[in-house]
Amino acid sequence: MKDVSILRTALPYIQRFRDNIFVIKLGGSVIIDVKNLDLVTEEITLLHLVGIHIVVVHGGGKQADELLEKLHHTSRKINGRRVTDDDTLEVAKMVYSGKISTEIVSALRRHGAKGVGLTGIDGGLIQARRRPPVKVFNKETGQEEMVDYGHVGDIEKVNPDLLLTLVNARYIPVVASLGADEKGNVLNINADVIAGEIAKSLKADKLISMSNVRGVLRDLNDPDSCISSLSVREAQELIQKGIIASGMLPKIQSCIAAVEGGVRRAHIIDGTKRDSLLKEIFKPEGEGTMIVTDSDKEKYLTEEFKGS
C-alpha cells in the first residue's frame, strides 16, 4: 500500500455512516459489462463490510433492448420512459429478475457479500397500479398525445419489512424493477422510481444512482460542466430550461422525490468510472452531482464533510 493516509481519510466517514442505509441504483449501462459489474460490486461489498447497510436496485433497459432486438421486437419510449406491451413485459421478467439479478448476486458473492435477489413482487414489497392512458407532451415530436404505457406501474405503497429483515441480518437485497397490483398482475416500473421510493420508505441516508454519465451537465457537449450540487429548486429550474431531459429526467425526479421525502442526500455518479462510489462516500469533494433540499443546501455545503 503506497499511501496508508487514505485509510485515515476514510475513517471519519466510516464512523459516520456505519449502520446507516444506502440505496444504490445500478443502471443497465453499469452492469452490462461483466468487468465493470465486478468492480462495482467490489466497491459495494467494501461499503457493506465496514458496516453500511446496502440495498441495490437495478434496471436493465439496455439488456432488455438487446433481447427484444434478437426477438425482432422494438419497444417504444416516450421522454425516456418505456412503453411495455405484452412481449416487452415477458422480456422484462426474464431479463430483470432472471439474468441481471443472478449476475449481480453472483458478483457480490465472489467478493464475499451475501446478496438476495428480489423483485418488488416478493414479500409484498411494492404495491402498484397500472398506469392509465395519459396525455403527454412528447419532447421528440413537440406535440401532445395520449399515451398508453401498457404494463407500466405507478407505485402506491412500499412495504420495507422484508428489506429491513434482510439488511439487519447482513444480507444485501438486490431488487429488480418489477412490481404488482393488488390482484398480482406484474408491472414494469422505472428502476429510478423504485429506488427513490424504497429509499424514502427505509429513511435511507443516501440514494445513489449509478449510470454512465458523470452527473448533471450544464452543457451537454462539455463533459467537464458537471454540476457538483443542486437544490431541489435549482434542479427544477434546469428541468424547465430543458437542460435536464431524456434519460436524466427520471433520475433527477427520483432524487427530488427522495430528498423531499426525508432521504438526507441523493447522488448521481458515473458507475463506469472506477472507484466512483468509494470517492463519493470517502472523499470530501465527492463525485458527480448531489441533490439536497433547498433548506439544506447551504448548510450541507459548509459542513466539514461536504462531499458526504
Report on this structure:
The chain is an alpha/beta fold and 308 residues long. The protein has a single domain (5-301), classed as Acetylglutamate kinase-like (Carbamate kinase). It contains eleven helices and 16 strands. It starts with a helix and ends in a 7-residue tail after the last helix.
Briefly, what is this?
With 308 residues, the chain is an alpha/beta fold. Helix content is 41%, strand content 23%. It has a single domain, classed as Acetylglutamate kinase-like (Carbamate kinase).
Largest sheet: 8 strands, mixed
How many beta-strand elements?
Answer: 16
* Number of continuous helical runs: 11
**What top-tier CATH class fits best?**
Alpha Beta
> Beta-strand percentage?
15-25%
CATH superfamily: Acetylglutamate kinase-like
Helix and strand layout, with pairings?
Elements: H1 5-17, E1 21-26, H2 28-31, H3 34-49, E2 53-58, H4 61-70, E3 77-78, E4 81-82, H5 86-110, E5 115-119, E6 126-130, E7 134-138, E8 143-147, E9 153-158, H6 161-168, E10 172-176, E11 178-180, E12 186-188, H7 191-202, E13 206-211, E14 229-231, H8 232-240, H9 248-260, E15 265-270, H10 276-282, E16 289-292, H11 294-301
Parallel strand pairs: 1-2, 1-13, 2-10, 5-10, 13-15, 14-16
Antiparallel strand pairs: 3-4, 6-9, 7-8, 11-12, 15-16
Helix pairs in contact: 4-5, 7-9
